[in-house]
Amino acid sequence: MNPEHYRLLQEARRSLPDGYKVELSGDLIVAQAPPSSIHQLNLAVVQRQFETHCPSGYFPTGNSDLSSPEVGAVRNPDLTYLPEDVINLPGHDIPADLALIAVEVVSPSNPDNDWTGKARDYPRMGFPLYLIIDPGQKTVTLFSDPNRDRYRTRTEREFGESIRIPEPFGFDLDLARLVPYRD
């Protein structure tokens, strides 16, 4: 992406009002309202399990802009794990390829952002793993083995089952306590 075009999109993204999660995907600025309590509960259930398997020297964050200027994307996953030394980086955006995983809980108002936009952007941005919790479909999907613009491997499980999270975490994520969206 043209660096000047990317800079202008970044300026526009940062000028939007507080209280929204604001991301870039190519020429699109994606804004989302604050998440529901079901969204937050499901994220907490997953994060608690990841915590005990987090590699040394990494920390969880759910409020970090991860950027990839060469593909024109800035994403802010619901949960990711970053190396502790990112606190020494200048500026607002952290290089996306430093993240170990992107975890998203699908929003009922904009599921296409997680299933299409992020599934397209995350492998291009260098995320080795992408985990989608979909309370509307009662499924959890893990994408792995990125190859430029897509993930080669897709593993899907239903709420109540478990799904294997590969290294560097290396554990079975228990999906029994996840809560579906109410109709």
How would you summarize the topology of this molecule?
Elements: H1 3-14, E1 21-25, E2 28-32, H2 37-51, E3 58-61, E4 66-68, E5 73-75, E6 79-83, E7 94-95, E8 102-105, H3 111-125, E9 129-134, E10 139-147, E11 150-158, E12 162-165, E13 171-174
Parallel strand pairs: 4-7, 8-9
Antiparallel strand pairs: 1-2, 1-5, 3-6, 4-5, 6-8, 9-10, 10-11, 12-13
Can you give a write-up of this model?
There is one protein chain. By secondary structure, this protein is of the alpha+beta class. It has one domain (35-174): tt1808, chain A (Alpha-Beta Complex), CATH 3.90.1570.10. 23% of the residues lie in helices and 34% in strands. The protein is built from three helices and 13 strands, in the order αββαββββββαβββββ. The chain has helices spanning 3-14, 37-51, 111-125; strands at 21-25, 28-32, 58-61, 66-68, 73-75, 79-83, 94-95, 102-105, 129-134, 139-147, 150-158, 162-165, 171-174. It is globular.
Q: Which fold name corresponds to the CATH topology?
A: tt1808, chain A
Helix percentage range: 10-25%
**Percentage beta strand:** 25-35%
Derived structural class = alpha+beta
Order of helices and strands: HEEHEEEEEEHEEEEE
List keywords for this structure.
23% helix; alpha+beta; 3 helices; tt1808, chain A
Question: Nutshell version of this structure?
Answer:
This protein is an alpha+beta fold and 183 residues long. Helices cover 23% and strands 34% of the residues.
